[in-house]
Amino acid sequence: MNDIFDQRRKRTDNILALLTRSLRDTLGNRYDDFIGNHTFIYATGSCGRGEMGKGSDLDAYVVSDAADLGKDCKVLQEAIKRANTAANLPPLDGDGKHIKAIAASELIDRLGAPEDDTSEDGVFTKRMLLLLESRVILGEPAYDQVIEKVIKAYWKNEELHRANYQPFVLVNDIVRWWRIVLLNHESRVSDFLCMRQTGSGGGMFCLEVERGCGARMCSFGRGISSSYELGAGGRHVVSVTPAEAVVEAGGSEELGGH
């Protein structure tokens, strides 16, 4: 079983290297303008989990502190499309039109706000995917900085409860994200049942649905268990360190036995 995970991890690493190289080549001397230390591109899904197999596609997002998000995103959209082709991956959903940059500040400022999970730009989902199953494609400095800021935002009330702090806001968000995953899963299973009833097949489609849901269940479980890891000295206080470990672990490391 470990061989399968090793193969998929190696495939993912190779594809990420191709994507990064293509993006750097495309941006050329404009790299600092469009990426620098202010913008990053990250992958989620099978790529973010390190599980890419034959036929896996790319789910990419752009986060930036740049002043002109719209203009910069158009350039990055085209660069990502070109990189996707260079890596010989399936076409991007909507031909890349769904790759829209969001401001890094939105990932933090909307945390806990009523509009967090109802906005059309999907800030809530992008934040959870960033924390639980992402790999940086380009712009690692900004990627690391934003993740650190997001995690610390979840711990902003720690000073008020130093003796018994528990990350309830983070756990609540992980559970909310899992509910969204389950709803999407049920919707896709319904699509499969319709395909089967009409005689249009759908066996492989259902298999991919089950694989995707199972992999994200691992992300969910890892996030919850690490969030409630005991603090130093056995005290029931959760520091920010276990949450940082969730992000660093990534994908299906535990399943692979590493």
Q: Any descriptors?
A:
4 strands, 59% helix, single chain, disordered C terminus, 258 residues, four-stranded mixed β-sheet
Question: How would you describe this structure to a colleague?
Answer:
There is one protein chain. With 258 residues, this protein is α+β, with helices and mostly antiparallel strands. It has helices spanning 2-27, 31-34, 45-48, 69-86, 104-109, 123-132, 140-154, 168-197, 203-227, 241-249, 253-256, and strands at 39-44, 59-64, 101-103, 135-138. β2 (59-64), α4 (69-86) and β3 form a beta-alpha-beta unit. Mean pLDDT is 78; it is low at 201-210, 230-236 and 251-258. α1 (2-27) packs across α4, α8 (168-197) runs antiparallel to α9 and α9 (203-227) runs antiparallel to α10 (241-249). The chain has a four-stranded mixed β-sheet, sandwiched between helices. The protein is globular. It has eleven helices and four strands.
In brief:
The chain is an alpha+beta fold and 258 residues long. The chain has helices at 2-27, 31-34, 45-48, 69-86, 104-109, 123-132, 140-154, 168-197, 203-227, 241-249, 253-256, and strands at residues 39-44, 59-64, 101-103, 135-138. The longest helix is centred in the last third of the chain and has 30 residues, at 168-197.
